[in-house]
Amino acid sequence: MPEPMLQINFTPFPIIETARLTLRRLDEGDADEIFFHRSNEQMMRYLDKQPFKTVDEAKAWIAMVLKNDEQNEGINWGIALKGESRIIGTICLFHFAQEHERGELGYMLHFDYQGKGLMREAVTAVLDYGFRMLKLHSIEANVNPENIASIKTLEHHNFVREAYFRENYVFNGRYLDTAVYSLLSPI
Questions:
Q1: Distance from C-alpha of 136 to C-alpha of 138, rounded to nearest angstrom
Q2: Mean pLDDT calculated for residue range 150-160
Q3: Nearest residue to 122 (alpha-carbon basis) of 19, 11, 30, 14
Q4: DSSP-assigned beta bridge partners for residue 139
Q5: Angle between the 148-156 and 118-128 helix axes, to the nearest 10 degrees?
Q6: How far is CA 23 from CA 20, 36, 77, in A?
Q7: pLDDT grade, residue 3 (50/70/90)?
Q8: Hey, where are the domains in the chain?
Q9: Reading across the β-sheet that carries 174-184, which strands appear in turn?
Q10: What is the pLDDT of residue 2?
Q11: pLDDT in tens, 19-45
Q12: Residue 64: CB partners within 8 Å, gap ≥ 6?
């Protein structure tokens, strides 16, 4: 069997610095922030997943993310303001299709920090990592079509809507749509 084109290895874990941010590995000490992000109705509005009810759920989610990092199945960074340790969001690359050299981008930012260009800065850094370090050919993002801010972030980075699926999944008894955006490697 031929070896996959992508050679994904997140050891050692890549810490990424930008002008205002540090993208770092999550740890159990981040459980309170993760719990807030993933239990808060406003933060979860477009994620279309059940909100966490306990800090233990946040700890289990962190453990799953760390396992994915270690097994090179996905990478999830905590987003912190430079010089601070408290995370204000997360950003990840996951769902790698090695044979197609494609990955998926996901992100979440605390509402107090939205509208300041911080997620755009984080996305720029992660796209650079995905294309330069992982040698991805393309990166996709699946978005709730009502999440206009996320769509604007993707379009700012030249993502193009390549698909729109009508009522393709059910969440809380409602059929929801999905918009799929993608970006080809500029390299």
A1: 6
A2: 98
A3: 19
A4: 103, 183
A5: 50
A6: 10, 19, 5
A7: low
A8: 16-139
A9: 16-17, 21-25, 75-81, 87-97, 102-109, 138-143, 174-184, 160-171
A10: 46
A11: 999 999 999 999 999 999 999 999 999
A12: none
* Whole-prediction pTM: 0.94
CATH code of domain 16-139: 3.40.630.30
Q: What are the structure tokens assigned to 50, written together?
A: 């059940």
- 138: its two tokens: 């393309």
3 token code pair: 């070896």
pLDDT tens track for 92-108? 999 999 899 999 999 99
Q: What's the DSSP call for residue 10?
A: -
Q: What is the DSSP string of 113-178?
A: GTTSSHHHHHHHHHHHIIIIIS--SEEEEEE-TT-HHHHHHHHHTT-EEEEEEEEEEEETTEEEEE
Sequence-ordered strand ranges (E) for 9-133 = 16-17, 21-25, 75-81, 87-97, 102-109
pLDDT confidence band for 4 (50 / 70 / 90) = low
Q: How far apart are CA 107 and CA 116, in angstroms?
A: 15
Can you tell me which residue has the tokens 């540090």?
22
